[in-house]
Design goal:
Elements (H helix, E strand, L loop, with lengths): L1 H10 L2 H22 L7 H19 L2 H9 L7 H13 L3 H27 L8 H7 L2 H7 L5 H21 L2 H17 L1 H16 L10 H8 L2 H18 L2 H9 L1
Helix pairs in contact: 2-6, 3-4, 3-5, 5-6, 6-7, 6-8, 6-9, 9-10, 9-11, 10-11, 10-13, 11-12
């Protein structure tokens, strides 16, 4: 029994548990001393929360057609944030605090995720893996956005998620991880267009120039590196989902009138 307990203790990542503690304590402090203490919505916060009211009521009524319509007409910003805030409204009621929980949730998840990403890069269980979570959880700017119903912490989370999944995909070569990376790119796109485009473009360049030497920098080699089965799964997943969103009649008419 003692041997089994020792093996279990060795398998537990104590630094991961410390990261969860850091995320929990810092989120508690942000909630109590920033989020609850702020003035009513600023303009940008209200802009995010307003369509979430319609989404919340569509979900509660079970009106799928209205949900699609209210999502589709969100043109300037895609509807990802309104979906999430709408769920928070259902769970906690319609309030400024409930809307701001979105920023706090993405912040807490980012603190944990940056540890996991660091560990995939270092490939070691070392106390140094705690440095990125500590820096993130003590950044005044990050903490300020964590208390708002804004998109910055969501962008941070999805960027970290995309790079984490991609690193795991490179490590294992599993097609499902490339697919999940593509889904993460599409999810980031649905929060804010550049949140999906920018990291996926970075992965496109990384995949294209992978293993190239200086004398091999040719378009033919770039295409060969990009057009692998797993890369196509990843990039096409993002492209198809984003393409379907942008190809709705509402979007086409809006682009035509722009």
């Amino acid at each position: 029994r003692d041997t089994k307990e020792l093996v279990i203790m060795q398998k537990i990542d104590k630094f991961f548990l410390l990261t969860i503690a850091i995320a929990s304590v810092s989120s508690f402090l942000v909630y109590n001393f920033l989020l609850l203490d702020l003035n009513p919505f600023g303009w940008d916060e209200a802009y995010r929360a307003n369509p979430a009211l319609a989404i919340e009521r569509d979900i509660l009524r079970g009106d799928a057609a209205a949900f699609v319509e209210d999502s589709d007409k969100q043109m300037f910003y895609p509807p990802g944030s309104s979906w999430i805030i709408g769920v928070f409204f259902i769970l906690f009621g319609e309030s400024v605090v409930a809307a701001r929980l979105m920023g706090l949730a993405f912040y807490a998840a980012s603190v944990v995720l940056i540890y996991l990403l660091t560990k995939t890069v270092t490939k070691k269980d070392t106390v140094l893996n705690l440095l990125p979570p500590l820096l993130l959880s003590t950044s005044p700017l990050v903490l300020a956005f964590a208390a708002l119903s804004m998109l910055e912490t969501a962008g941070m989370f999805f960027t970290l998620l995309i790079f984490y999944l991609y690193n795991k995909a490179l490590e294992t070569g599993e097609a499902k991880l490339y697919f999940l990376t593509g889904l993460a790119g599409a999810a980031a796109f649905m929060m804010k267009y550049n949140y999906g485009v920018t990291p996926m473009a970075a992965l496109l360049l990384a995949a294209g120039f992978a293993r190239m030497k200086t004398g091999e920098l040719r378009p033919k080699n770039f295409s060969k590196n990009v057009l692998t089965k797993n890369n196509l799964i990843m990039f096409l997943t993002t492209a198809v989902i984003c393409g379907l969103w942008l190809s709705s009649p509402t979007k086409i008419l809006e682009f035509g009138n722009a």
